[in-house]
Amino acid sequence: MTTEPQYSTQRFQWQPNRNLLLLCLCLFPLLIVLGFWQLDRADEKQRIVNQYNANQQASPAGVAELLGQNNLQYRSAWLKGELDPSRRIILDNRVANGKPGYEILEALKVVGIEQKILVNRGWVPASLDRSILPQIEAVKGEVQFRGALYQTLGGYRLDDGIAQVEQWPARVGWVSAERAEQLFAERFFPYQLRLDQDSPGALQTGWATVSMQPAKHTGYAVQWFAMALVLLFMTVIANSNLADWLKQRRQQG
After folding, report:
1. How many distinct structural domains can be found in the chain?
2. What is the pTM of this model?
3. Residue 38: pLDDT above 80?
4. DSSP assignment of 102-133, as one string?
5. What is the DSSP letter of 7?
6. Is there a single domain that holds both residue 228 and residue 139?
7. Domain assignment of residue 70, yes or no
8. 50 and 82 co-located in one domain
9. Complete DSSP assignment for 17-85
10. 133 in the Ramachandran plot: left (φ > 0), alpha (ψ -120 to 50) or beta?
């Protein structure tokens, strides 16, 4: 009787495990979908950053630009008018440097524009006692305010259950130009004005353009795709003799 060398009997063979294969079939598409979702988010954030950079380079908008139909998102603006401190919105659940607080918004009347403009004066810290609202110094008289125009892009909205303001100032969970019309019972310009730090009436300002940079989303996408490849490789290992076959091949070499 002749005995063939050991490597001649070592062939790649499938040894399928139904449960492991089913697990891979469920997880692999999910990881791929999550990877492409992160790539889509990266593209979306990059468009926002590009729009911000383009509009920030433009000259500050005035009344004439506001009356046009141009895209004004993130456009710098210098607007002269008078704020209404008697009706103030206190935007709840705003965090700055890890501290809870509020953003303060007031209605601005600008000469030459029928609609009011919602002005975000910035952030203030919240008291440990939720019943105590912040005391904000009013801006008196007609002043030129400097800031950037911003239109709410959606996102999470805290349902505060407020349909109509019964007492000012009003603490709300979210606000937009559309909701300002409901709360103030007046017409509002589609964009709010977020004040620059050196503008009259500014509190603590400085808003991030995007909550997460495009590169970070791309990094997360790479991680999801890498996990999918690892899952695929481990599934092949677990359902075949690939490990032993590769070991035998190395020994032959």
Report:
1. 2
2. 0.70
3. yes
4. EEEEEEEEETT-SSBEEEEEEEEEPPSSTT-P
5. G
6. no
7. no
8. no
9. -HHHHHHHHHHHHHHHHHHHHHHHHHHHHHHHHHHHHHHHHSPPB-HHHHHS-S--TT-EEEEEEEEEE
10. beta
Q: Identify any residues that bridge with 124 across adjacent strands, giving them in sequence order.
A: 102
Strand pairing report for 76-96 and 170-172: parallel
Which pair of structure tokens corresponds to residue 215? 């590169």
Residue 24 resides in a domain: yes
CB-based contacts of 142: which residues, under 8 Å, 6+ apart?
Answer: 80, 81, 82
Domain residues for the domain of 34 are: 15-59+211-253
Tell whether 246 and 177 lie within a shared domain.
Answer: no
Give the integer Cα–Cα distance in Å for 236 and 239.
5
Residue 67 domain flag: no
Residue 145 lies in a domain: yes
Q: Do residues 150 and 243 both lie within one domain?
A: no
pLDDT in tens, 173-215: 989 888 999 999 999 999 999 999 999 999 999 877 666 778 8
**DSSP reduced 3-state for 249:** helix
User: Which tokens belong to 224?
Assistant: 């999801």
> Percent of the chain, pLDDT > 90?
43
Spatial distance between the Cα atoms of 88 and 40, rounded to a whole number of angstroms: 38
